[in-house]
Specification:
With 186 residues, this protein is of the alpha/beta class. The chain has three helices and 13 strands, in the order E-E-E-E-E-E-E-E-E-H-E-H-E-H-E-E. It has a seven-stranded mixed β-sheet. It has a six-stranded mixed β-sheet with strand order 5-4-3-2-1-12, with no helix packed on it.
Length: 186
């Protein structure tokens, strides 16, 4: 499974059979992915979704072997747990307050946590989620400028990380502990 960050902070989760785009924009409507997921219920996509399977709310979904659990994070923001090719990805949107214990339990058992650092959660909160959920990788996204990323990496004690073009994740090669990974925006 391969993870990338595309233009406009769109996330690409490419499995063997399916590709999922998270927060795609109208300019990506010709992309060959079949599944689009939005981190906010208020996204207006009906006019240009081009026949894609669109998920933008709480619930449980299964599309072509991809399993998705969406949990209400408050203020119309959704937190997702997505399983592709045996890899479980948690996507933490711009939630403004801590998730309840019940909601946190529904997300547990993830391999990769992708966290929108453009929200109000501090690094220590995001790290707490990553550890509680058992994440092996933590990938920040959603930052408006390099300063936000530098501040995040400083608090994570990960200064100077070189951004990767993509992250290839395989069940048998997950690291021990939590690795912070920065991805280039294509």
């Amino acid at each position: 499974m391969e993870i990338k960050i595309l233009k406009n902070q769109t996330l690409s989760l490419k499995g063997k059979k399916e590709t999922v785009l998270v927060n795609p924009t109208e300019t990506q409507r010709k992309d060959n992915s079949r599944i689009w997921i939005y981190l906010s219920e208020s996204e207006k996509t009906e006019e240009w979704n081009n026949g894609k399977v669109v998920i933008k709310g709480p619930g449980e979904y299964e599309i072509g072997g991809v399993e998705v659990v969406g949990i209400n994070g408050g203020d119309g923001n959704i937190v997702y747990k997505i399983e592709i090719d045996g890899i479980v990805i948690g996507i933490l949107s711009k939630i403004k307050e801590d998730l309840s214990d019940k909601k946190r339990e529904r997300i547990s058992g993830i391999d990769v946590l992708m966290a929108d650092i453009g929200g109000v959660l501090e690094y220590k909160n995001i790290e707490g989620y990553a550890k509680k959920w058992g994440a092996n990788y933590l990938i920040p996204f959603g930052y408006n400028d390099d300063k936000m990323l530098v501040d995040f990496l400083d608090k994570a004690d990960q200064e100077g990380l070189e951004p990767l073009d993509s992250l290839k994740v395989e069940v048998e090669n997950l690291p021990d502990g939590l690795d912070v990974v920065v991805l280039k925006v294509e």
